[in-house]
Structures are given as C-alpha cells and as structure tokens.
C-alpha cells in the first residue's frame, strides 16, 4: 500500500471519529490545566516557601542540596511524580486513540487501562523516561505538545518547572 493510500485511509478514519479525538485531547488538556499543573505548582510553591527559598535556579541548586537536603529530596520526588504523570498522559492518549480506532472508546475504559499501566511503572523506567524526555521530546515538541510538557521544557530553572 502506498503512502498516499495510507494517508487517505487514516484521514478517512479521523474524519469518521473526529469528535471522539477532539474529546480525548480536550479531556487531557482540561485535566492538565485544572488539576495537574495547579497541583504541582501548589506543592512546589508550598515546599519552597516553607523552607524560605525564593526560587530554584542553576546558581543556587548547590546551596539547596547542601543546606536544604530535605527540600531537594522532596523536589526530586516531585520530579519523579511528574514523570509518572507525563507517562500516564501519554499512555492515556495511546489507549484512547487505539480504543477510538477499534470503536470501543470510553473515558472510563481509557482511565482504567492507563491506571493499570501506571501501576506497572518501575523506578528504572522513570529514569529511562527522564532520559528520553531530555534527548527526544524537545524535537518531538513540534508534533506532541501539551501545556504540561511546554512548562517543563520552556523553564530555564532546574527544578522550578511549574
């Protein structure tokens, strides 16, 4: 099958289910904008304010590691949780697209499959995902862009990502 025939077939598939694809991406965007981003912003702000650290940057990260070790550990844990959320976001999209294609899409089913995958994530997988994001995702930002990823990669500070 030539690439033009495949493109035509995928375009036809998309136009048949465009509303479901729109709802899938819109639901992910709403979850990011109203739940995930404010939650991480609140936690980061609370931790930094509680320890009297005005901001985290490349210049003061060594000071934070040496004088505020607990804050550093909390921020690393938050970063790992953020990687889990990004993994869940991507898994949700993949499950949703697959379910729409097989014509059995439900939000509940996509959330259940995503949660099942998130429960299987190991620490080594998170480190690999972090490396993947550092190397590949900035170039893939052209194709797959979300507000959460935009906040991570547009940030000029080390841990003050949201």
What does this structure look like?
- It is a single chain.
- The protein is mainly α and about 160 residues long.
- About 75% of the residues lie in helices and about 0% in strands.
- The chain has one domain.
- It contains eight helices and no strands.
- Helix 2 runs antiparallel to helix 4 (about 70-100), helix 3 (about 60-65) crosses helix 4 (about 70-100) and helix 4 packs across helix 5 (about 105-120).
- Pfam families: GPDPase_memb.
- InterPro entries: GlyceroP-diester-Pdiesterase_M (IPR018476).
- Keywords: Membrane, Transmembrane, Transmembrane helix.
- This is Glycerophosphoryl diester phosphodiesterase membrane domain-containing protein.
Gist?
The chain has 162 residues and is mainly α. It contains eight helices and no strands.
């Amino acid at each position: 099958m030539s690439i033009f025939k495949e493109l035509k077939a995928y375009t036809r598939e998309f136009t048949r289910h465009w509303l479901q694809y729109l709802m899938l991406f819109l639901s992910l965007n709403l979850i990011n904008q109203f739940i995930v981003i404010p939650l991480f912003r609140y936690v980061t702000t609370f931790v930094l304010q509680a320890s009297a650290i005005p901001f985290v940057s490349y210049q003061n990260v060594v000071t934070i590691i040496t004088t505020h070790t607990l804050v550093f550990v909390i921020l690393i844990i938050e970063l790992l949780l953020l990687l889990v959320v990004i993994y869940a976001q991507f898994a949700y999209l993949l499950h949703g697209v697959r379910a729409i294609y097989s014509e059995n899409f439900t939000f509940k089913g996509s959330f259940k499959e995503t949660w099942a995958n998130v429960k299987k994530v190991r620490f080594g997988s998170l480190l690999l995902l972090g490396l993947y994001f550092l190397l590949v995702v900035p170039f893939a930002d052209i194709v797959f862009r979300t507000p959460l990823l935009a906040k991570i990669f547009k940030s000029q500070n080390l841990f003050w990502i949201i």
